[in-house]
């Protein structure tokens, strides 16, 4: 194992991915849906996990400005996985709306890029520093 713990993080990510796939299989069989929904449901669960556990709860609270870029990238990756899963599930439920779903995905991508391109100083200036 490497001293920085990256191997441990990789094993945890693989373990959670296996749990997400198992959950997706359970949901698909319970609702008697198509087996093709296993991948989008797993993407949705993994994306939500990345956004909540890794992105929001896992950031370094003592050094906000240093971890903000990394946190933003992790939140973007997690929300990207979740949005792709949601779009595929929506296309399964309401077929024939690919153009509308593509437009919604592009709007989401544009808003995400605009939020990620904001200067970190503008976020930090609104916070009060506790002495």
From TrEMBL:
The chain crosses the membrane at residues 12-31, 37-58, 74-93, 99-117. It comes from the Archaea. This is Uncharacterized protein. It comes from Candidatus Methanomassiliicoccus intestinalis. Keywords: Membrane, Transmembrane, Transmembrane helix.
